[in-house]
Amino acid sequence: MGGKTEKGESMEWTTQNTKIFIDIIYDRVKKGQLQGSTFKKTIWEEINIELQKTSGAPLPDGVERLKGKFNRLRFQHREFSTLISRTGVTWDPEANKVNSPEEVWEEMYKKGKFYKQFKKHGFEHDYYILGEIFNSSTATGKLSQASTQEPPNSDEEREK
User: Fold this and answer.
1) CA 19, CA 21: separation in Å to the nearest integer?
2) Is residue 102 assigned to a domain?
3) Which residue segment(s) compose the domain that 118 sits in?
4) Tens of pLDDT along 3-42?
5) What is the chain's alpha carbon radius of gyration, rounded to the nearest angstrom?
6) DSSP 8-state code for residue 152
7) Which of 49, 72, 145, 149 lies 20 to 30 Å from 56 when distance is taken between CA atoms?
8) How far apart are CA 97 and CA 127, in angstroms?
9) Is 109 helix (H, G, I), strand (E, B) or coil?
């Protein structure tokens, strides 16, 4: 099963397995299976089976472990979004490099040591795909849409 593991996580969560997991979740979100901010238990069970088949790695603890990973990814995405939205902070997604004045880094480190990984490595996963996954879980109502869409500009478009 080899491959690089994410810092602080067990050996089963290689970078490759995490990518597979994100791809599976993204596919489920596109199919409209996200209920609020999570999936129903039956969907989590299907995701667990699909991940095991695709990765070839049995992951102990099943569904609860996947929910934990999902929540950690949501947390990382939210904190990275907070960082790059700050004044004076820029992120080059191509190079995956965050540029920020040192005083901003020092302030962020006080909030959590995990910000050091963003300074050293940028964002490890596909930031935009995770944005579509997690932002869709917070958008509700008739006018909810992907963050990449333009807002409706007339009453006619709002009726769609």
Assistant:
1) 5
2) yes
3) 15-137
4) 444 444 444 788 888 999 999 999 999 999 998 889 999 9
5) 18
6) P
7) 72
8) 13
9) helix
